[in-house]
Every structure is written in structure tokens, then in C-alpha cells.
User: Fold this.
Amino acid sequence: MLPWHNPLELAHDYATVDLLSAGRLDFGVGRGLFKGELDGYSIPWGEAQERFD
Assistant:
């Protein structure tokens, strides 16, 4: 769930894994499908697409 994470921290973490795995990392992201997925993190559903973009 990409909107839950700080984009800079996420990029750093996945770049590290990519380096450690000699470029074998496949990275996929998603915005989330259900409102309840964001409710637990106090992220308004209306912000999900903007955060994902």
C-alpha cells in the first residue's frame, strides 16, 4: 500500500534491496482497494489517489 509510506524512505529501502540482490528486485505498487485499508492509518480515502500519484 503505497499511500501508507514516506516516498523517500520507500525509495531508499527498495534501492538498498535492489543493490543487495544484484538488480533482481521487481517492484510493484498499489493504491489500495478498500477504504478500510486506509482508515486504520487515519488517511482519508479521498487522498489515496493523490498520494499514489
